[in-house]
Write a structure and sequence with these properties.
- The chain is an all-alpha fold and about 325 residues long.
- The chain has 14 helices and no strands.
- Helix 2 runs antiparallel to helix 13 and helix 11 packs antiparallel against helix 12.
- The chain is globular and about 50 Å long.
- The termini are close together.
Length: about 325
């Protein structure tokens, strides 16, 4: 029953995006987000026809396109083939030291409805259970390990708790997080909040940390510390993950980076940048999902129900009234 409800909900998102219209119950901002998301998805899809194992032109493109229903079968096939080739060449070692590489791949595979514990004979979640190695690269390691392990509800309760404590202990006096220093960084703070979101409802300590983190993020926003489109993108993903309403000005600022071809620039007045475009795609997808009460960008426990061909999803959706899409959070 839950899977059916989730499928109906994603039908609503895919149909609205494919048809270029917002659901009747949603407002003008949703239509604006949908339009920007459509253009961003068109650009990324054309720019990354054959996704590779890479931080750019790879997993983030796969994740963003899959979560808004725009990943094609050929892109899916190309990415899985590239991953299997990489694993064969490296004997399953994606990185000797930077274990967020594993987290990124696990997130992409989960978005595809694939089991990252069995890919080419390798369990790609296993390295994420090595708490010492994950923490080697700083707070980014625990942050993305938590996102990856919780994204598909994979085993590893002890490691998850360890990373959760890492994040809580790393929170700065201003309520933010950073790779170095005592002042919160917009991107790192937003990503930490994304990882903590899964625990807000069950842990008062985490809820307090999130409240302080959001205060810090808002203060950084108001002080002009968001100087790239990626900062806006990560913050918007955090607001959506926590089911908070993002500042309208923040949404508008992200959209101000969009170029005529649908891509996004890294800096104000800059040129098209693929990394910025992929992050913006993920942020717009997160906002579109939030507006329709779909599960958040990184909550992919229902991902297997969302990977049908978008055209087929649209055809199925057209047979049902838009208002018939159930609320997956209440299912």
């Amino acid at each position: 029953m839950k899977q059916t409800a989730r499928l109906f909900a994603v039908l609503a998102l895919t149909a609205a995006l494919t048809l270029g219209t917002a659901l009747p119950a949603l407002g003008a901002q949703t239509a604006q987000i949908d339009q920007a998301l459509n253009r961003a998805a068109d650009y990324v899809s054309a720019a990354v026809p054959n996704p590779q194992v890479s931080s750019t032109g790879g997993e983030w493109a796969v994740l963003g396109l899959a979560r808004c229903g725009r990943l094609t079968q050929s892109q899916r096939t190309a990415y899985l083939a590239a991953l299997e080739h990489t694993l064969e060449e490296t004997q399953g070692v994606l990185s000797q030291r930077k274990y967020s590489e594993y987290a990124r791949v696990v997130l992409a595979l989960t978005a595809l409805g694939e089991d990252p514990r069995s890919v080419g004979g390798y369990d790609l979640t296993a390295p994420l259970l090595d708490t010492e190695m994950v923490a080697w690269q700083g707070i980014n390691g625990p942050t993305f390990a938590l996102l990856a392990l919780n994204g598909g509800d994979y085993p590893g309760s002890e490691a998850k708790e360890h990373y959760l404590q890492n994040l809580l202990q790393a929170q700065g006096t201003d309520g933010g997080w950073s790779l170095a220093g005592s002042k919160g960084d917009p991107d790192v703070t937003a990503q930490a909040l994304q990882a903590l979101a899964a625990y807000e409802a069950t842990s008062p300590e985490v809820a307090r940390a999130i409240a302080r983190g959001l205060d810090c993020l808002e203060a950084l926003w108001k002080s002009g510390s968001f100087v790239t489109s990626e900062s806006c993108a990560q913050a918007l993903i955090a607001y959506a993950a926590l089911n908070r309403t993002a500042p309208q000005g923040m949404v508008e600022e992200l959209l101000s980076y969009q170029q005529p071809d649908g891509s996004f620039a890294h800096l104000p007045g800059g040129k098209s940048d693929l990394m910025a475009s992929e992050q913006a795609l993920c942020a717009l997808t997160a906002l579109a999902r939030q507006e329709r009460n779909l599960f958040p960008l990184y909550d992919m426990t229902a991902a297997g129900t969302e990977q049908a061909n978008p055209d087929r999803l649209t055809a199925l959706f057209r047979a049902r009234p838009a208002c018939a899409a159930p609320d997956p959070r209440a299912a």
